[in-house]
Design brief:
about 210 residues, rod-shaped
Length: about 210
């Protein structure tokens, strides 16, 4: 990962999941502090003002065990948060590496979704495959962020400007074929691919063409 990617990650706002994990870590850290305060108070009482019949060793053993479990849970939360960040960084890096392919798949998704039958799918896909290879289009894709490039090409080619949806479908295809890791960091099962989504209720569509 280069410095620019690291800077973007540090500047990006925390997601709700990250905020919740950070809150849990703060709670666990405070719980660990309380355990230490209890152990210190117990030691002070045992040394300076011992109570008759009090088993200070047992009391400290119980608090120590609870503290150990708290620290283990804190470590688990911290590692889980780090794993999610690493997975997100790895996914973002892969998306940048396959930037051109991601935009092209997004435009193919748009072409497929607006088509009504096999003949229209074939025609529109062929048009997109030809157009994305034109020098001016390739230059636009290379010089623009994916959202900007897809929005511009949708306007230019008369596709619905559902930029987020087209890119999401492109990411699903790239995940399925192993170009980028899944968003949750877990490996996808190639034997059980997700069912394709339909653009309209009640309308059956042909399978998307093989673009590879």
């Amino acid at each position: 990962m280069d410095k620019a990617q690291t800077d973007r990650m540090s500047e990006a706002p925390a997601t709700p999941q990250e905020e919740r994990a950070a809150r849990h870590l703060r709670m666990l850290a405070r719980a660990a502090e309380i355990h230490m305060e209890i152990m210190e108070a117990t030691r002070t009482e045992a040394v300076e003002a011992p109570q008759p019949g009090a088993d200070y060793s047992q009391r400290i053993a119980v608090v120590t065990k609870s503290l150990r479990l708290t620290l283990l849970l804190e470590d688990k939360f911290a590692n889980h948060r780090d794993d999610r960040r690493k997975a997100a960084a790895k996914r973002e890096s892969a998306q940048e590496d396959w930037h051109d392919l991601r935009v092209k798949l997004a435009m193919l998704a748009a072409a497929y979704e607006v088509s009504e039958d096999d003949e229209e799918v074939d025609r529109r896909v062929a048009e997109v495959c030809e157009r994305v290879e034109r020098p001016e289009v390739a230059e636009l894709i290379a010089a623009s962020r994916p959202e900007v490039a897809v929005a511009a090409l949708c306007r230019r080619w008369g596709f619905p400007p559902n930029v987020e949806r087209w890119l999401e479908m492109a990411d699903e295809a790239m995940e399925h074929y192993g170009f980028i890791p899944p968003e949750d960091g877990e490996e996808a099962d190639p034997e059980d691919p997700p069912e394709p989504r339909s653009a309209g209720a009640g309308r059956r569509k042909p399978k998307p063409p093989d673009t590879g």
